[in-house]
Every structure is written in structure tokens, then in C-alpha cells.
Amino acid sequence: MKRKKVLHIIPNTTFGGTSKLILDIYKKVDKSLIHFDFVSFNKGELHSEFTRYGSNVEYIPYIKETGIIKHIKLIMSIIKKNGPYDAIHVHNGYKASPALFAAKISGINNRITHIHQNKVSSRWIKGLFPILKYFLNLLSTKKVACSKSAGELVYSNSFQVINNSIDLEKYDWSSLTSKADFKKEFDIPNNTLVLGHVGRFSNVKNHEFLINISEYLKSEKVPHKLLLIGKGPLEKSIRELVKKKGLENNVNFLGNRFDVPDLVKNLDVFLLPSYFEGFSIATLEAQVLGVKSIISNNVPKEVDLNANIIKYKKLSDGAESWGREVLGMIKESPLDEWEIKHSLKVKGLDLETTVKEFENLYFRTP
């Protein structure tokens, strides 16, 4: 069987959900059959991981910096330089059309659009959205989304849902850091409630809401720690908010971490008050680790393993209501590792299933 060469367009090579998912998939695909190259817009901590298997990783400016014509020319030049390619797989959502057009002009017949979000946030994008949507549908030969709601946002006809997923090998409870060692590392007293969040510091993740939950718990004299894992453009303003509210002893900023499973496993409750999500790998990870979660009702229901471990809440309920929900959840009974992981496999949310679906995209004719 002829080896397929695929060019992925990814937002960045940082710890972001989409890029990390693509990297995890690439580690598992049969490299005798498939080779990945990458075009990205932001070089990050995972760059060396993306190049480990001989992949070319090219960085170009964001389209708003170059304009559409130059953006298309840049991608065409990369295709000419590193190709030929059997397929292009574009992960930058409703902004995929220029890359798809560059691929079509360059003779790539297998053009895959992959949507990872279920809402348009930018005001100027909303005005252009009907045009962007039209050309995306016109130029795509295969249409993929991480959830039903994400696909319905963009596609005008049928599409394939490929669930975001995780590698179960990384989530063996017995091999992760013990709660005693975890609390010792972060100097957390035994009677302290530990909350956590994994996500980039950006508007969509709604970190201010998390700080308001912490403020409520402090007002109720609940000893607690809120661990914020991630980095991003709004980190400075959130740090200032924490200082303003006098929560420096309650909120810890941990930055990007390679030991996320060890950290999340030792949370009492995981929180995700996002304004929108295409899916949420972080919530999936929390469930697989047996951590109870409270997430906003803006997160697609596909992420729920139906293991009675998640509670959906409206943001309009307010931070106090979320705080009271937290206090109620910690009194609930513990969960069974086998049952949770079985639920994940039944729903097709394990990485092995996703890898097979990705491989089929490159070998299946449209």
C-alpha cells in the first residue's frame, strides 16, 4: 500500500487541545503508511515533539497579518517545497477556505476540513461567516467535526463526527502521583478542598468566573485551593484580579505542565465555565481520572461518559450557585476506574478508535 503524505494546518504547537490531540494521534498512526507534515501560526513548547518523527513544521503569520492572497501563496509555496501531498487536513475552523483553495490549486484532491469549535466569537468574523461557510463547503471534499454542534455550525450538508479522545495508557490511576505526595508538593493542608481547571487563558475559558467561585468559597470560610493549569494572553489580568480580591493564598498559577494527569487526578472537583467549546478534552481527562466535574451547559453533551460524574450548569446561575454545587459534589461516593474507562470505550472516545478514523480519512475516497 502506497504511503500517504498528509499536510496538517494547525493553530499552534503549544499545549492547546487541538494541537495536542493531533500530536497524540500522530504518535499512534502507522508511520509506514502515513506521514504528517505541519503548517502552524505559533511556535510553542511542543515543537520538538512535532518534528520527532521527521515531519516538516513550517510557521507562517496569521491571515489577518498577511491578507488572504499572501496567505494562499505561502501555503502553496510550502506545498511545492515539501510535497507532493495526498491530502490536506485543516484544523483552523471556519478560516480554512484559503488553505483549502491553496491545496486545490496545488492539485491536492483529498481536502479535509476539521471543525473543533461550536460557536463564532469574533464580531468581524460573524459578518463574514456566510461567505466563509460557503467557500469552506465548496472546497472541502471531506467534512469532519469534533461534535454534532460543531459540525452544524459550519457544514451545509452531511459531515462525519470524529470524537476528540485520549490515550488510556496515560491514565492508569495506580501509576499516578498519590494524593499525599501531591499535597506535599504544593503545600496543601489535608482539610483543604482542591479545585482545578485546565485551559488557555483566553476569553472563551472564562477564568474570571473561576476566581468568583474562589471568592465565594473564601467568604463561606471554606479552606480551598484553585489550581489553574495553562498559559495565555489573559493570565496577567487574571493574576491582577486574584490580587485585587485578596485570593493570593487560594489561587495557584501552574503554567503549562507535562504532568497534567497527575495534577487532575488529585483534584476534588474539576471546573469548566467556558462560554463555548467544540468538545473538551480536559473534561474527558477529568472523568477518566475519576474526578467529579462541573461544566457549563455550553459544552457539547458528547463529552459526558454517562458515568454520573459530570454536572452541567448554566453560567447565568452565578458563581455562588456553582460554589454550592462544588460543596455538594465532594460529599458524593467515589467512582470505579474500570466502569469509567469502559464507558469511554463504549462511546468511542479512546485514542485507538480516533486513530483508525483518521487513517480512514486518508485512504478512503470521498
TrEMBL record:
Keyword Ligase: no
InterPro entries, alphabetized: Glyco_trans_1
GO molecular function term, any single one: glycosyltransferase activity
Cited Pfam families: Glycos_transf_1
Domain Glycosyl transferase family positions: 180-300
Superkingdom, taxonomy of origin: Bacteria
Keyword list, A-Z: Transferase
Keyword Cytoplasm: no
PANTHER family in UniProt: GLYCOSYLTRANSFERASE
Name of the protein described by the UniProt record: Glycosyltransferase family 1 protein
Species of provenance: Halobacillus litoralis
High-level lineage: Bacteria, Bacillati, Bacillota, Bacilli, Bacillales
